[in-house]
Design a protein that fits this description.
Blueprint: E1 5-14, E2 17-27, E3 32-36, H1 43-50, E4 58-63, E5 66-67, H2 73-80, E6 83-86, H3 98-109, H4 114-127, H5 143-155, E7 161-165, H6 173-190, E8 193-197, H7 201-206, E9 210-215, E10 218-224, H8 225-229, H9 234-241, E11 248-249, E12 252-253, H10 256-267, H11 295-307, H12 313-333
Parallel strand pairs: 3-8, 3-9, 6-7, 7-8
Antiparallel strand pairs: 1-2, 1-4, 4-5, 9-10, 11-12
Length: about 325
């Protein structure tokens, strides 16, 4: 079972450069969340802050109730055992084969025998579709296989929190979808709390239970997928639809004059062929048939129903339609 992760008023800078400030959010226990934002908005910095690799200048980061910004190195070492982390490039040791790469955390952090280690390693390699490749070196396999090997290694200590940094980095759309499906299936099996850092629009729309977005050094929004996918917040709508029109520009943000020019072009139909508006709420990726029921879905739905009356009427209507459609699909599937 996953555990809760929350930040309160967290601010991070490098010298005089402010990366983000006053970020407060809670990753719900056992759910899949995604943190989005244009390139250069500090998404990976946020992820590294959650495991104590970077220390914020202000604010608190609570892992299962413990503030890691104030705990000792020994306490932080123990808390990090709760995490499994998949870095962008897999972060595999080039001189070790996949078996030894996957076994490394077990040998480093536990006193398990080699026979116990072998059982766990082969189980995780099978889970990630790598059985038969255990003797290969990272340089002998594809980028997608390296990602999956990195995920296998992240899972060997049975983490309660899984952090995934840009899972689509270096992968084609098909392999990105396979990796996303694997994360959903893992959540169904072990109910881990998962945070995916990404700027992949398709992944953001279809995978997470909760979505957050960083922009202009602040957290614009964070909440259940239904709320973000029906949001009237301009930057959220622009990002999730991949539009040119909106606050985000090539250099992150635009001035008022540029926004006005682009809006005029949009009103004249100039961008109609360049992008397609998403209507309603896209169905969420489901666990593979045969997997346990993903408990996160029902927990999220209950939260959404609790706040439904606070949302704009158009959002309420879209959310009700989405939930009715999903309920009908699930009834049919049974």
């Amino acid at each position: 079972m996953g555990i809760e992760v929350s930040t309160v008023g967290v601010t991070k800078s490098f010298g005089s450069q402010n990366i983000w400030q006053d970020v407060s959010l809670t990753l719900p226990t056992g759910e899949v969340s995604a943190l989005l934002g244009p390139s250069g908005t500090g998404k990976s910095v946020f992820l590294k802050s959650l495991i104590g690799l970077l220390r914020p200048e202000r604010g608190s980061i609570f892992i299962d109730g413990t503030d890691i910004t104030t705990c000792s190195n020994k306490e932080l070492y123990e808390i990090r055992k709760l995490f499994g982390v998949l870095f962008q490039d897999g972060a595999l040791f080039g001189s070790m084969n996949l078996y030894d790469n996957t076994a490394f955390p077990l040998r480093e952090h536990t006193k398990k025998s080699e026979s116990e280690i072998k059982k766990i390693v082969m189980e995780k390699l099978e889970l990630t579709g790598l059985l038969g490749a255990e003797n290969k070196l990272p340089g002998e396999i594809s980028g997608g296989m390296r990602k999956r090997a990195g995920l296998a290694r992240a899972l060997v200590l049975d983490p309660q929190i899984i952090l995934v940094d840009e899972p689509d980095s270096g992968l084609d759309p098909v392999r990105t979808t396979y990796l996303a499906q694997l994360l959903i299936d893992i959540n169904a099996q072990i109910d881990a709390t998962i945070l995916i850092v990404t700027h992949n629009i398709n992944l953001a729309r279809t995978v997470p239970d909760n979505i957050g977005m960083l922009f202009r050094r602040r957290l614009v929004m964070f909440g259940p997928r239904e709320v973000l996918l029906t949001s009237e917040e301009p930057v959220v709508g622009q990002f999730l639809n991949g539009r040119m029109v909106g606050p985000i520009g090539m250099s992150e943000e635009k001035d008022e004059a540029q926004m006005a020019r682009e809006q005029a072009l949009a009103d004249a139909g100039h961008y109609d062929s360049a992008t397609e508006e998403i209507e309603g709420i896209i169905p969420q990726m489901k666990a593979t048939p045969g997997m346990p029921v993903r408990q996160a879905v029902e927990r999220r739905r209950r939260r959404v129903l609790d706040i439904l009356h606070t949302l704009p009427p158009t959002a309420q209507e879209a959310i009700r339609e989405s939930m009715n459609a999903e309920g009908a699909t699930e009834t049919f599937a049974r």
